[in-house]
Amino acid sequence: MTTDKVIFDTDPGVDDALALYYLLRHPQIDLLGVTTVFGNAPVALTTRNARFLLRAWGHDAPVHAGAAGPLTPDMPPEFWPTSIHGDNGLGDHPIDLEPQDDPDTAAQFLIDQIRAHPGEVRVLAVGRMTNLARAVQMAPDIAGLVRDVTLMGGAFRVPGNITPAAEANIWGDPLAADIVFGAPWRVVAVPLDLTTRTFMDSAMLARLAQAGGPGMRLVADLSQGYVRFYQAAGYDGMLVHDCTAAVWLTDPDLFTLTEGEVRVLSDGIALGLTLMNPADRQGPLGAWEGRPRQFATLDGQPDAILDRIAQVCTA
Fold it and tell me: So where does this one cross the membrane (predicted)?
């Protein structure tokens, strides 16, 4: 089996933890490194959390801290989703590492790795797109050298989860997202249109924890606050947004792509709205003129995606 060289850009984050575990367990994935960004917690905590998870799972991939705030000017004040991810970003699971004062090296790490492995690197970004946007601004040549970019983000035909207009990762830095969608590389967005249908119930999570050994038990343990968040809304389980995007890398046959130019609104009440001009639409392009056609997995097979997560995480 050939392996894919992957950089995981993340903000752990409970569902990020499951996605990272999936990447580490999958024999097709060669994890080159982890870059971190603000989002589910401040970047000092997301970086500490990434190191904690990698150590717990016996992996020595390098971790590079990235953006502490957005590129978008005049953003509303950031609020940390502690009701979902806990005060420490990992469901308040005990963590025996302290945050460090890391330099901001994520964008340069992305540039260096993409240049070192032309045509091979796949970037999976499941947080704000700030590191990616900064990397392609700093080194536009990487757009022609990267294999592809996968994003967990956007809400194209469904309501957002941070506002009615916007999904959280896009909302957190909409200018960065617009830059990423507008760069001349292949982007595949895995949006709420599909991830809100990919729901792991509590019984399945418990089965995976029992069958998957200590690594999967850690995922289940730190996910309990996340499950309680959904239980308060009447759902017994959790959405696996980020791991759904990870499955796209290994099992694209479980997804259905829609193609078109994408813009992201960066001001007003629709801040963070993702708008695609579908490839089959007839009419003037306006602000979409000159943009590259990108892709979004607006549909797919949620049950099969969950089955694949189970297979990999308990193998």
Answer: none
Rounded-to-integer distance, Cα 146 and Cα 168, Å: 25
Q: Are 249 and 2 in contact (CB under 8 A)?
A: no
The CA distance from 96 to 88, in Å, is 12
Nearest to 252 by CA among 14, 28, 18, 10: 28
Q: Which of 85, 241, 242, 251 is catalytic?
A: 241
> Taking CA 302 as the corner, what is the angle to CA 212 and CA 313, rounded to the nearest 5 degrees?
15
State how far the Cα of 65 lies from the Cα of 51, in Å rounded to an integer. 10
Which H or E run includes 165?
none
For the ranges 76-85, 137-146, 281-290, the one whose mean pLDDT is highest:
137-146
Domain extents in the chain: 4-313
Specify whether the CB–CB gap between 45 and 89 falls below 8 A: yes
Whether 59 sits among the annotated catalytic residues: the reply is no
Beta strands in 105-232 (DSSP E): 121-125, 148-152, 187-190, 199-201
All residues at 6 or more sequence positions from 229 whose CB lies less than 8 Å from its CB, including other chains: 83, 84, 238
Task: Give the pLDDT confidence score for residue 278 in this predicted structure.
Answer: 94
Q: Indicate the CATH number of 4-313 among 3.90.245.10, 3.90.1640.10, 3.40.50.1360, 1.10.760.10.
A: 3.90.245.10
Chain segment 9-63, per-residue pLDDT in tens = 999 999 999 999 999 999 999 999 999 999 999 999 999 999 999 999 999 999 9
Choice among 11, 193, 242, 251 that is catalytic: 11
Q: Position of tokens 């916007």?
A: 166
Q: Is 26 a catalytic site residue?
A: no
Whether the pLDDT of residue 1 is over 80: the answer is no
Judged by DSSP in three states, 299 sits in: strand
